[in-house]
Amino acid sequence: MTTDIRHETRDTLLARLAGEPAYRVDQVLGWAWQRRAQSWDEMTNVPKSLRERLAAAWTLGRMDIVRVHGSADTTRKFLWRLPDGAMIESVLIPANPALYGDAADRHTLCVSTQVGCAYGCRFCASGLDGWRRNLAPWEIAGQVLAVERWAATQKPPGTQPPGPAPSERRLVNNLVIMGMGEPMANYDNLMVALRGLNAPWGGGIGARKITLSTSGVVPGIRRLASEPEQFQLAISLHGATDAVRGQIMPINRKYPLHELVAACGEYVSRRGRMITLEYILIEGVNDAPSMAAPLVAIARQLRAKVNLIPYNTVEGLEWRRPSPESCRAFADAVDAAGITTTLRLEKGHDIDAACGQLRLRTGRELAAVPANP
Ligand code: SAH
Ligand code: SF4
Asked: What is the pLDDT of residues 252-311, one digit of tens each?
């Protein structure tokens, strides 16, 4: 079976293209990654004979934009159609210096790792229709490349030549793996994608600018702890006792809190990196002031920061977002205990909420958009 060229590293490509000079291999990688080529014919400075050789051995998969929602200075959602007709979304969020320390002109992209999700967290739209398939590495990395390609077409009049933007005009410098799917359940493909996105010959995005979020797949956390790259880790905690967490996250039965916290502790001590505990505030479920103490205890043990996210209502699900006052009171209790805490109350800008709502929308879009227009 042919594989996508973006599944190769510079080394494997050099080996497979034995006989070609290294600069040719770098040209091809430059087209595939920095110039986000979607066809071999775009690689105009690569000799035709080599282009034919490439086309015979690899695919250069492309995803097509079905729709872009949103406006220039707020969150934008991209709906992509993959070659098999499956649809996925990515969310582009303007820099939020408070949360991620970005330069103001840069953006965070939230990418999907699976079509659907098998984990069935009760509050989440991504799992509503179950799991369909894993994304291939190029389909994960390709979300970044396709957004960059799209951005290059959004030029202010008269300022940019047409065609793909050169790498120095990159828009996305921060990645969160918080779209549809459970990253740890598609671990190998995700790592191939992230290595390509991270590599100097590839996407050039720093490992510390890439955050994986997991619902608590303990073996995945352990594996990540042993990787050479400094990818960042976020945990979808959402409940600080087994009683609360078990009620909303089925995975808590397989990996209860003591096991999850132990794996996180191992990660923190091996990496020396801070992790983030994500905690959606859901009215009447996990937002009682008494819930702050167990959350504080876990955060303290792990020296973690806490990201509080008011629940984003999902049509068809009965969960509700607490009042701003309740959210604020909860945040104050965690904060008062000396834990670094973020709470963002403004609507639409919430990166996690934006990402957590992908599936429902995608399902609707699937119904509304013909597969071959
Ligand atoms: N499967 C991974 C990554 C994708 S979900 C995980 O669960 O961590 C990204 C984040 O959005 C998770 O923290 C998830 O719990 C959260 N989320 C899901 N639905 C949400 C909603 N309706 N409102 C706010 N956050 C939500
Ligand atoms: Fe899957 Fe994460 Fe949603 Fe849970 S929160 S259903 S793991 S995408």
From this structure: 999 999 999 999 999 999 999 999 999 999 999 999 999 999 999 999 999 999 999 999
Mutate to test the pocket of ligand 1, among 178, 187, 255, 345 (most ligand atoms within 8 A of CB): 178
Task: Note if 168 is an active site residue.
Answer: no
Q: Which of 2-6, 92-96, 153-157, 223-227 has the lowest mean pLDDT?
A: 153-157
User: For residues 279 and 343, is the Cβ–Cβ distance under 8 A?
Assistant: no
Judge contact between 213 and 191, C-beta under 8 A: no
Which is catalytic among the residues 89, 139, 148, 182? 89
The domains located in the chain, with CATH, are 3-59 (1.10.150.530), 64-154+166-368 (3.20.20.70)
Nearest residue by C-alpha to atom 11 in ligand 1: 356
The one catalytic residue among 168, 229, 355, 365: 355
Which ligand 2 atom is the nearest neighbour of the CA of 215? 7
